[in-house]
Design a protein that fits this description.
The chain starts with a helix and ends in a 35-residue tail after the last helix. 43% of the residues lie in helices and 0% in strands. The chain is an all-alpha fold. It has two domains: 63 residues, no CATH class; 31 residues.
C-alpha cells in the first residue's frame, strides 16, 4: 500500500474501535483518536466505504505489480488458496497434492 492507503487503513481501524467501544486492553486503545486522519485525500479513499477501499486498493496493486505477485491458484476453480503452499482449495475442496 502507498502512504495514503496505509493512513486510510489505520484511520478505519481506529474509527471501528472507537465506534464499537473496544475495551479489551484499554491501554492499547485509549489513544485511537490520534490514528484518525484529517487529510482530505485519505478520507476520500474511504468515502465509499471500507469494502470499496479494499477492492480498489487490491485492483491498483495488482495492476501495478502483476508480474511480481505469485498467487497460489486452485487449478479447478482458479480462486486464491489460503496460503502460498496450500494444496487444497478452501472454496471448492479440490486437492492438488501429489498422490503416493
Amino acid at each position: 500500500m502507498n502512504e495514503d492507503e496505509k493512513a486510510a487503513f489505520t484511520h478505519n481501524r481506529a474509527d471501528e474501535r472507537l465506534k464499537h467501544g473496544n475495551r479489551i486492553g484499554i491501554h492499547k486503545y485509549q489513544n485511537q483518536e490520534r490514528d484518525l486522519s484529517k487529510d482530505e485525500h485519505v478520507l476520500k479513499l474511504l468515502s465509499n466505504g471500507y469494502e470499496h477501499f479494499k477492492v480498489t486498493t487490491v485492483i491498483r496493486i495488482h495492476k501495478e505489480r502483476k508480474n511480481e505477485i505469485k498467487l497460489n491458484l486452485c487449478p479447478n476453480c482458479n480462486k486464491i488458496a489460503r496460503t502460498p503452499v496450500a494444496k487444497q482449495c478452501r472454496f471448492c475442496g479440490n486437492s492438488w497434492r501429489e498422490q503416493i
